[in-house]
Design brief:
about 200 residues; mainly alpha; single chain
Amino acid sequence: MTGTVPVGYPEQLAMMLGGMMFFAALVAARWRARGAPRDTGGAQDRRSILWIALQSIGIGCVGIGPVVRASDPLALRHWAAGAVVLALFGATAALFHWASVTMGRNWALVARMRADGALVTTGPFAYVRNPIYVALALFLFGLAGGVGHWRAVLLGFPIYALATWFRVRSEEAVLRATFDDVFVRYARQVPRFVPRLRPTTPAP
């Protein structure tokens, strides 16, 4: 693939370890969701399935394709690159886990709001409104570093970003319909995607 950067063993090892950490966080979130009491109803938006598919395509654009092995796979520069890749995947797993634990029973794949749910504004949600999508963006860049497909980011990230924007709009419509002015006040104080340096406690 034109534009593919040769990678060494450290980048690939970091990608494997990081991928396992993220997969473990995802399985844990799904397991917690299974243990939640059965939902009794609530608002939902099935259109978010389309945006989930497009997000996956964006990430897939970065991951799919041949990987070029470097002629010096254990060179110091590959260990440095591997450390960056592991940091990106580690941040992905940690942020996803923090957010899913904070959401508790409110976490779900498709945009919806449990009838007995609450607006989550603590944990990572006090810094940024969509920490899980920030985590997936880090995953995308970590994947690019692990396989060397940096040019593919020019295609994959815009697709992911556009799909994420529409998915967030769908989810915010559900939250606004459920929580009305409470969500509006929260949205005014906490940014969508760029985390604040300090947590924000929305005014009641």
